[in-house]
Design goal:
By secondary structure, the chain is of the alpha/beta class. It has two domains: 155 residues, Nucleotidyltransferase, domain 5 (2-Layer Sandwich), CATH 3.30.420; 169 residues, ATPase, nucleotide binding domain (Nucleotidyltransferase, domain 5). The protein has ten helices and ten strands. It has a five-stranded mixed β-sheet, sandwiched between helices. It has a five-stranded mixed β-sheet with strand order 8-7-6-9-10. The chain is globular and about 65 Å long. The two termini are 25 Å apart. The structure holds 5'-O-[(R)-(carboxyoxy)(hydroxy)phosphoryl]adenosine and zinc ion (ZN). The site of 5'-O-[(R)-(carboxyoxy)(hydroxy)phosphoryl]adenosine has 20 residues, from α5 and α6.
Length: 343
């Protein structure tokens, strides 16, 4: 049976809508990034995020139907991000999703944002088969998950403090880069010499799979202060610091990922979430995993960061697994915090 799903993503600072069809693939993908709205505050302002989701989501839904050249009557379900995320922002997509489900007489499926990131590589041609290890690295989360199948997730480890993307963003701020700093820091690092500074590889020499990035950020801050005190924080130093920081994060992520492949005995790993767009991480991970006969899978770069396609796709998997609510269920489900293992 053919299923067509409308996906709504409003968990943070991207308003995103997509339409995914089980037979024809991705039919539409629309996104508005609020970066310009939050940039002057140096971070996401939750209330501004919610208000702008309200402004943008209906036009993006209209644009998605135009792009897909279908009518709402062709839909089988509406999927919306139910959490984790900013509660007010989540409520915009959730109440609209449930409302549309009600008027169109189709189920409204609550989707776990991290499950959607985790399944995003399955949107690509030649997708990974289960089981695999998932390294989820975003602005809000950093975790290694053993994935046996849909909904069969065992969290091997996660960050004890900052998420990898958060560490990128905060370090970028220390280096005077504009928000959102992750991609900016990566660009600056391209011009730097990472070998000039030897930053700690947090938790890499400890057993287990947990991460900690706040000490690394502090190490960079101390260096920045040292150079500032001598009025010597040149562009070259900033680029070298950026590169050394990035190398330390990538070493840690790759090291723990290889350990997760050892522990599970799996040969496949997927890397998803915003930091998965990092070029150095992608190439170093591919090299390390392929060296041992394994394979790395990524979503295309635009589906590493938040998007509607992954929500529509995850919603379809839930519908097919018959773990979606029926059309009469009008419960709006949102959870700011939501453990991936609970779904
Ligand atoms: O998955 P995502 O779009 O949103 C969350 O769910 O958090 O991830 C956003 C995070 C931000 O911290 C951003 O700085 C980081 O991903 N990011 C990057 C790169 N592109 C985005 N970090 C490092 N290198 C990049 N190229
Ligand atoms: Zn995300």
């Amino acid at each position: 049976m053919q299923n067509t799903i409308l996906g709504l993503e409003t968990s943070c600072d991207e308003t995103a809508v997509a339409i995914y069809d089980s037979a024809r693939g991705l039919l539409a993908h629309q996104l508005f990034s609020q970066v310009g709205i939050h940039a002057k505050y140096g971070g996401v302002v939750p209330e501004l995020a919610s208000r702008d989701h309200i402004r943008k989501i209906l036009p993006l839904i209209d644009a998605s139907f135009d792009e897909a050249r279908i009518e709402p009557s062709a839909l089988s379900a509406v999927a919306y991000t139910a959490g984790p995320g900013l509660i007010g922002a989540l409520l915009v997509g959730a109440t609209l999703g449930v409302g549309l489900g009600m008027v169109w007489g189709i189920p409204a499926i609550p989707v776990h944002h991290m499950e959607a990131h985790l399944l995003a590589p399955l949107l690509e041609d030649d997708p990974p088969e289960f089981p695999f290890v998932a390294l989820l690295v975003s602005g809000g989360h950093t975790m290694l998950v053993a994935v046996r199948g849909l909904g069969q997730y065992r969290i091997l480890g996660q960050t004890l403090d900052d998420a990898a993307g958060e560490a990128f963003d905060k370090t970028a701020k220390l280096l005077g880069l504009p928000y959102p700093g992750g991609p900016e820091l990566a660009t600056l690092a391209d011009q730097g010499d990472g070998a000039r500074f030897d930053f700690p590889r947090p938790m890499l020499n400890r057993p287990g799979f947990d991460f900690s990035f706040s000490g690394l950020k502090t190490a960079v801050m101390l260096k920045v202060r040292e150079f500032e005190a001598e009025d010597a924080l040149t562009d070259t130093v900033r680029a070298d610091l950026a590169s050394a920081f990035q190398t330390a994060v990538v070493d840690t992520l790759v090291g723990k990922s290889l350990r997760a492949l050892d522990e599970t005995g799996y040969g496949r790993i997927i890397v998803a979430g915003g930091v998965g767009a990092n070029r150095v991480l992608r190439s170093r991970m591919a090299e390390a995993v392929e060296d041992r006969g394994g394979r790395v899978y990524y979503p295309r770069t635009e589906f590493c960061t938040d998007n509607g396609a992954m929500i529509a796709f995850a919603g379809l998997q839930r519908l097919l697994a018959r773990s979606a609510p029926d059309a009469a269920d009008l419960t709006v489900q949102v959870r700011a915090r939501w453990d991936l293992q609970e779904i």
